[in-house]
Amino acid sequence: MSFWKRPDIVKKIQNQIDFDKIEAIRIEREGWLTSKHWSKKLQLFEKLPELESTAAEIDEFNQFADWVTVGNPELLKTSSNHQAIEKLAEELMPWRKGPFRLCGLEIDAEWRSNLKWNRIQPALGSLTDAKVLDVGCGNGYYMFRAVTQAPEMILGLDPSVPFLMQFELIQKYARRPELQYELLGAEHLSFFHELFDVVLCMGILYHQRNPLAIMRGIHDALVPGGITLIESQIIPGEESIALFPEDRYAKARNVFFVPTTSCLENWIRRSGFESVELVSVERTTTDEQRKTRWTTFESLEDFLDTNDSELTVEGHPAPLRAAFRAQKKQ
Ligand SMILES: C[S@@+](CC[C@H](N)C(=O)[O-])C[C@H]1O[C@@H](n2cnc3c(N)ncnc32)[C@H](O)[C@@H]1O
User: Fold this and answer.
1) Per-residue pLDDT of the chain (330 residues; tens, 9 = 90+)
2) Is residue 138 in contact with ligand 1, taking CB distance under 6 Å?
3) 3-state SS record for 231-265
């Protein structure tokens, strides 16, 4: 395998998970990487320069604030190294979540995920020694942010090969053995039993056909007293209702239920959580989601009605987002 090798976290926790079921899915999904398309990109991992030191190189002192900063910029000074790193980063476009500074190469992603991190991070409390799960972790931007707080482990689940590869490119230079990415989905939460202290579930629920089953899965995967941070697109309104678009929402086909804030709160409470607390409500702006050199597709400005930025191109309410913190009963 072309990725940075480290001990397998899933094996370490095998007594608290349905290990055999997870292993079967892992073996099946490893096959996804062997397609012609992805194996070409995997070969580019082999060409990456090695780090000289074994030290983790995340910018723990937050010198670059919101950028996940890994790898020594000295590495980029040779043109062959520069080419290898930049070529692979470009091959793995689009970079939806970021920003990352990789050996000095600035990968300014479509989403400035630092803005969401800054909104939700104070609600998480200390992550030191915590077992953390990020459901639908994307390329792991938040995992790399959270790891600087010395958690015991952070497992990211996302059934996306391109995001796995982006994660592994950053991990090659971050070298954090407490971070692991699995090509699993929210539908596999039932394989984890009262294991995690903190579960992040951000930008996931409105893509799910059965958001309540996901919420219940999160509840059951948490230890008693564990915390979840649920973040979702929402629609404006006081009533406890959800928009179910006839077809697309902001040009996306895979959007099912977009709740109001009170509907989302009710989903969370009725999934068994206590002390549910609203953390933030924000309108998504082109300051947070926009085209950059690292994205290839349309972005927010293309999804909104050109005459009325309060509406999507389909005439739905324009994207708002809410985040809740909730606790499982002790
Ligand atoms: C809107 S993005 C959110 C990413 C990140 N959590 C964030 O908040 O920025 C949705 C993510 O869900 C992932 N995804 C797709 N199917 C999924 C599934 N069945 N379970 C969990 N995540 C899934 C996608 O690959 C994508 O990374």
Assistant:
1) 689 999 999 999 999 999 999 999 999 999 999 999 999 999 999 999 886 654 445 555 455 578 998 888 888 888 888 899 999 999 999 999 999 999 889 999 999 999 999 999 999 999 999 999 999 999 999 999 999 899 999 999 999 999 999 999 999 999 899 999 999 999 999 999 999 999 999 999 999 999 999 999 999 999 999 999 999 999 999 999 999 999 999 999 999 999 999 999 999 999 999 999 999 999 999 999 999 999 988 999 899 999 998 999 999 999 899 999 999 999
2) yes
3) EEEECCCCCCCEECCCCCECCECCCCCEECHHHHH
Using DSSP's 3-state secondary structure scheme, residue 205 falls into helix
Q: How far apart are CA 98 and CA 93, in angstroms?
A: 12
Atom of ligand 1 nearest to the CA of 231: 8
Ligand 1 pocket check for 203: Cβ under 6 Å: yes
Peptide bond preceding 259 in cis form (omega within 30 of 0): no
pTM: 0.95
Q: Tell which one of 133, 204, 256 to mutate to probe ligand 1, the residue whose CB is within 8 A of the most ligand atoms.
A: 204
Question: Ligand 1: which residue has its CA nearest to atom 18?
Answer: 185
Give 11-327's CATH code, choosing from 3.40.630.30, 3.40.50.150, 3.90.230.10, 3.40.1080.10: 3.40.50.150
